[in-house]
Design the sequence.
């Protein structure tokens, strides 16, 4: 992910670097599920070239690699050096030779024009300081007729909305300027952003899925692998203990049959780069 900072490992990139070893490895496979959904909907052909921006631990990268097969090429890009290192190890264990991961800035892609058949980006646009720049870069490196696919959490995502409301009730208010870039949390905002970047044949849709955490503690630990970690890290130890206690108590409303039941809702934007 790109934050356009002089020190790319500070701020939110540093947060994800510190979470890299556990990212998408604690709790149910939420990102893996929606990563497969993104790849299924964009459906890269066998032999295609795919760029996965803000690849994280490969929730999109690996499904795309399976889809294009050994005659294709899949490149994962992330600004977090720790995330790249972890994912490179995963690639090494896979034994696949048509997949690679490297460090790179979404707003300044180090690829020639028209390099890829598809550019995919899962749950990252709102972290970029200038998402419109990133989308223009996606447009540039796509071949004419190439496909872009992006995902974002819906504004009405049940568990996310609940979690943020609960956190807001026990955390200090965010200072001005701390809020992230536009959320792209409605199909209209995703579609508008894609059109403004020059894409055509824009489609948007939503997907919901249920996921169960073993218990409240696993759910709490999963928060430390998300952008929410940035708020939690800034708390004094006594304050953090208070917030954890309050959040674990709140999670009781989601608990049944021994697990914490959550429902997630994501949005998908698909579009094509015009031939002319």
Sequence:
């Amino acid at each position: 992910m790109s934050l356009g900072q002089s020190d790319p490992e500070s701020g939110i990139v540093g947060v994800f670097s510190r979470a890299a070893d556990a990212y998408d490895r604690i709790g149910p496979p939420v990102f893996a599920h929606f990563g497969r959904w993104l790849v299924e909907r964009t459906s890269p052909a066998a032999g295609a070239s795919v760029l996965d921006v803000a690849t994280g631990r490969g929730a999109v990268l690996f499904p795309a690699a399976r889809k294009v097969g050994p005659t294709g090429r899949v490149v994962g890009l992330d600004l977090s050096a720790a995330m790249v290192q972890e994912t490179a190890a995963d690639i090494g264990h896979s034994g696949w030779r048509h997949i690679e991961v490297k460090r790179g800035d979404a707003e300044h892609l180090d690829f020639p024009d028209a390099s890829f058949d598809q550019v995919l980006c899962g749950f990252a646009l709102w972290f970029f300081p200038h998402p419109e720049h990133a989308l223009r870069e996606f447009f540039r490196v796509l071949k004419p007729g190439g496909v872009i696919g992006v995902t974002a959490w819906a504004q009405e995502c049940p568990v996310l909305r609940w979690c943020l409301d609960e956190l807001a009730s026990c955390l200090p208010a965010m200072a001005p300027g701390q809020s992230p870039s536009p959320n792209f949390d409605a199909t209209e905002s995703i579609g508008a952003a894609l059109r403004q970047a020059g894409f055509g044949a824009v489609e948007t849709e939503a997907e919901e899925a249920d996921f169960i955490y073993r218990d409240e503690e696993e759910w709490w630990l999963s928060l430390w692998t998300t952008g929410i970690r940035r708020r939690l890290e800034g708390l004094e130890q006594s304050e953090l203990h208070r917030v954890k206690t309050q959040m674990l108590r709140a999670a009781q409303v989601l608990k049944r049959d021994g697990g914490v039941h959550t429902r997630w809702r994501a949005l998908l934007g698909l579009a094509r780069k015009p031939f002319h």
Summary: Residues 1-6, 175-181 have pLDDT under 50 and may be disordered.
